[in-house]
Amino acid sequence: MSPIDHTSGAHVDFSAPSPLDPQSFAARHIGPDAPGIAAILQAQDQADLDALADAVVPAAIRSGALQLPAPVSEVAALAELRALAAKNTPMVQMIGLGYHDTLVPGVIKRNILENPAWYTAYTPYQPEISQGRLEALLNFQTAVSDLTGLDVANASMLDEATAAAEAMTLIRRTARSKSARFVVDADTLPQTVAVIRTRAEPLGIDVVVADLAGGELPVGDFFGLLLSYPGASGAVVDHAELIAEAHRREAKVAVATDLLALTLLRAPGEIGADVAVGSSQRFGVPLGFGGPHAGFMAVRADIQRQLPGRLVGVSHDSHGNPAYRLALQTREQHIRREKATSNICTAQVLLAVMASMYAVYHGPEGLRRIAERVHGRARTLAGRLAAAGVEVEHDGFFDTVRLHVPGRAAEIVGAARDLGVNLWRDGADHVQVSVSEATTDEHLDAVAGAFGASGAGDGAAFGGLPEAAARTSEFLTHPVFHEYRSETAMLRYLRRLSDKDLALDRTMIPLGSCTMKLNATAEMEAVTWPEFAGLHPYAPVSDAAGLLELVGQLEEWLVEITGYAAVSLQPNAGSQGELAGLLAIRGYHASRGDEHRTVCLIPASAHGTNAASAVMAGMRVVVVGTDTGGNIDMDDLRAKVAVHADSLAAIMVTYPSTHGVFEDTITELSEVVHAAGGQVYVDGANLNALVGVARPGAFGGDVSHLNLHKTFCIPHGGGGPGVGPVAVAEHLRPFLPSHPLAGSAAAAGRDAELGADRPEFGSIGAVSAAPWGSASILPISWAYIRMMGGDGLRRATLTAIASANYIARRLDEHFPVLYTDARGFVAHECILDLRPITAATGVSVDDVAKRLADYGFHAPTMSFPVAGTLMVEPTESEDLREINRFCDAMIAIKGEIDKVGAGVWPATDNPLRGAPHTAEELAGDWEHPYTRAEAVFPAGVLPSSKYFPPVGRIDGAFGDRNLVCSCPPIEAFA
Ligand SMILES: *Cc1c(COP(=O)(O)O)cnc(C)c1O
User: Fold this and answer.
1) Per residue in 784-834, pLDDT tens?
2) Which residues contact 671 (CB under 8 A, 6 or more apart)?
3) Domains (ranges, CATH) in the chain?
4) Which atom of ligand 1 has the smallest separation from the CA of 606?
5) In which element (H, E) is residue 806 found?
6) With CB atoms 3.0 to 4.6 Å apart as the test, which of 83, 179, 448, 644 could cross-link to 599 if both were Cys?
7) Residues in the chain, pLDDT under 50
8) Mutate to test the pocket of ligand 1, among 513, 653, 688, 704 (most ligand atoms within 8 A of CB)
């Protein structure tokens, strides 16, 4: 590792950046060049970035230089990543347990996973500029709903285990039984059982893991049941009778299942299930040491309005054409603060898009052929082993063969490893072999050899699917699953969809709180390298030596950046980091006999996930008010702390605040809460204003989550993936997430003392399916920090703050900036108040957001944290030209608003109300009081590079009344 970087910001040479120059990456990541930064600073009367830091960041919280390795060039960082990758051993993976090798079609890998048009897109809250990814997600929902035989599927869950846990709480809300017991089939993936236990405990749900193989349900009441189909052991059992019995006992039933198996198996909906969950990983998404992958959930129509997560639905636009948008929620409907039913926000959109395109590309026949080949190979293997005298435990299975090998399991698994194959060992006597799409005859030979059954290549196939479980119904009948079989057709379909969308590869996305910064190509490159992409999460840790070294370094750097003592990278979104952090607080209080500390103070302006996470952690939310300046009302805080002193668990604050201001009361706030025995949770979503400038762990925080998909350059993927590490002070270290199978697998097996050599694992249980969550995208954040160095990160932070203040100053006279600090500064984002404009002219935030699409921009964050406002965050990555282009567009829009206000255009018919305008509007009749040119080529928009939104303004309410969440028939588009 290189020496520590102590250089200060003043001496960077921007004149000759070369990819070999250690300073060059920071100069490219940071958008404004030296003259640009000078102009930005001059506009706010600051001499340099250090002066700005003095003016904006409260002195009490400022930190010294980051002790990080000196930055390296892009070339050097990639060489280091290559060296780390070389320490990994991607074996032939036949472990199974929810993770299967898959053949990622090249056209999907390159044109989605490696294509910024897809991976740099934002969550489709602005549907008119998101029709491409919304269509892809609708395909995903249609595929899941068809295969599971259930009415409605959502647009992804974080993983299979959290989907199962959400199924448990969904069932609890909707089942008739008022029991607190939830029964889980013992033949369920261990990680799923672990996450269910973590989620159940704070909610007072009693999880009963029961062996249901005999077809008997436990005695006594229970509100719900989770079955696995196929089971973790590979067994396929017809569950129809058990489900009927559970229904007779007023419980609802969720089934954890496998989409590939369902091409051959009777659908869960057809055997009576109310909910189906699982992972779509084996539909063309790399293993990646456990993630990211798209989990799924599908439900019957009677509970569709209770579905957590995002749901894409069909509605129509202002011209009556079908159009897609997120249904039942402008923002997440299920994150209704303390009435929340789930905290999921960022999901797994990019991976759901990949899985959907795998289904589109293969179609129903292709998927069935893949499934038959997998199943056939599993039967052949079982036959060969049986012929050699090995006891095959189940004769009903799809892809996983479980062998009873008394006392020989370790020896067999070791022999397979010597032949390059990872198998699963369950105790001393059992081995499981899981066949995938990538399994070849040579792999089967190696496995047979490991069992001492080599040569017996001709044993009759053994076992199969129970007859009662055979699928007879059709699936994927929609034309979209039949029209793109050639690579040419597929390539063009992907291009056609991505061309409909505005992502970071076309425009700045100035979304406050979401930090849409550069996702540099050099950061992205390692993600698809087979040495990272091909690792099974339960492979022996030695297989992942290089990736775990990278994990260790990243944890160390995040500890240095945040000022905390330890970091867990397991949570796979900010929401899950919040839950993990609050569970750590809960565990800490419980360890001191303070179980009664359950009150969580949350400011009125907090992000919805905060309150939702608190409820999920078994806490009671008490809201703290804000004063007229937007700051936390310290008098109210002191009063609430006094009232709840005995039961105070924590306060959750975002810093800088969601109002985009550095509040100078943060240290005092921490003291007040600590004095009453509470813990301080600092929501780290706004860490982009703090890195290298202040450390939450040093200014009063006990725990924070970070969003690596905001501050640390993991792309947003159109709404996921994410990584939400939880960082804690020393006293909370024992309460970090753990995992039942961390660092185990083939060499160690299920009975080993798991994760004992990994000090980052604590005691609150698992919050994600995989031990290191979305491990395969961690090289992105690693590369960012490695190439920026401490000083580069600090300059990035201060540039982001400088640019936000520049925008605030330029736009204030047109759209008043709602909150600033006492000296008139904002932090890294600013809230533009449109409420007076709306009151005076009728022009709403919606109108401005849609009109920005006509100008080729993605809208800022709408109505969060204050209704009727826009929150703008430029980040450090936008150069001055783009920032000015945005300001110019906003000022031109203000000119249009003024014309509405002056009566030049009527309030009901003007370019804002009519926005966005489509290419279709260039032809045919035109009956508006403004011209076509004013509509589609407003100031600054060049006809030669014009982006046309593919649909006009979408009517969301219509779609919510008439909920349609799978692909509409093709005639609808006639
Ligand atoms: C983005 C955000 C979250 C939630 O993070 P996800 O990764 O979407 O789950 C929480 N709090 C704030 C302030 C945020 O901006």
Assistant:
1) 999 999 999 999 999 999 999 999 999 999 999 999 999 999 999 999 999
2) 700
3) 119-360 (3.40.640.10), 564-739+778-783 (3.40.640.10)
4) 13
5) helix 778-811
6) 644
7) 1-12, 14, 330-331, 744-759
8) 513
